[in-house]
Amino acid sequence: xxxxxxxxxxxxxxxxxxxxxxxxxxxxxxxxxxxxxxxxxxxxxxxxxxxxxxxxxxxxxxxxxxxxxxxxxxxxxxxxxxxxxxxxxxxxxxxxxxxxxxxxxxxxxxxxxxxxxxxxxxxxxxxxxxxxxxxxxxxxxxxxxxxxxxxxxxxxxxxxxxxxxxxxxxxxxxxxxxxxxxxxxxxxxxxxxxxxxxxxxxxxxxxxxxxxxxxxxxxxxxxxxxxxxxxxxxxxxxxxxxxxxxxxxxxxxxxxxxxxxxxxxxxxxxxxxxxxxxxxxxxxxxxxxx
Length: 290
Fold this sequence. Notes:
- By secondary structure, the chain is mainly β.
- The chain is built from two helices and 23 strands.
- The protein has three domains: 2-72, no CATH class; 99-159, no CATH class; 196-290, no CATH class.
- The chain has helices at 2-10, 253-256, and strands at residues 23-28, 31-36, 40-43, 46-49, 59-62, 66-72, 81-85, 91-95, 99-102, 105-108, 118-121, 125-131, 145-150, 156-160, 173-174, 180-181, 188-191, 194-197, 201-202, 205-211, 215-221, 237-240, 246-249.
- β3 and β4 (46-49) form a beta hairpin.
- It is elongated.
């Protein structure tokens, strides 16, 4: 049935156009459908925009309340109008002095719109915004534009630009004045032109690692007393000195001191530079070497 109706429509034998500006015409399951567009009322086969009133002024289109009949408008509940009804029964809403009535909102004379490029000017327009001159500067709210200015039609417009340093671990941020900022992402260090994930060890020095809470632009020394390997077989007890250097000892200085060494790694460091350190950020319970 649907295909038959669609074929008839295509041949012009079925017309689903209701000729109303406030509906979208379509065919569904073989029947014509007319969907009411948002912010419109359809009353007695006539389209009304939101806040548009009936001929006598006593009804108003409020789609959010009822899009198919007028809502009561004898009292519009606006502070900037005086509500009256004349002898013929027409509802009047007389605008008070020093006010504009714009999109059903009361706006004091001289008040700007949020975009800063238009204002209520009762000497020029009581029911709409009056645009500012195009030479006036403004803020379009977009950080990736510069030289923002009013366009003379009530809109704020700026020249678009972009920021991109082509570094994966930085944020590309516009400052709104034509400049860029590239802060390092929270879970990365950026050292010697490379992105290093937080807690990864320096591949050239196991006594240094990326610690984003300490320094995102340089390696951080691991704590004094952390196990390492100085590459010298004659010194089997190797520990970081807290200054970024691995120092070897022939006897374990912790055992000699009568203390038990607590490793800050979950496993002893090896040559795998992708291995992350398991570090207590609040401190270390291990003994330290003086």
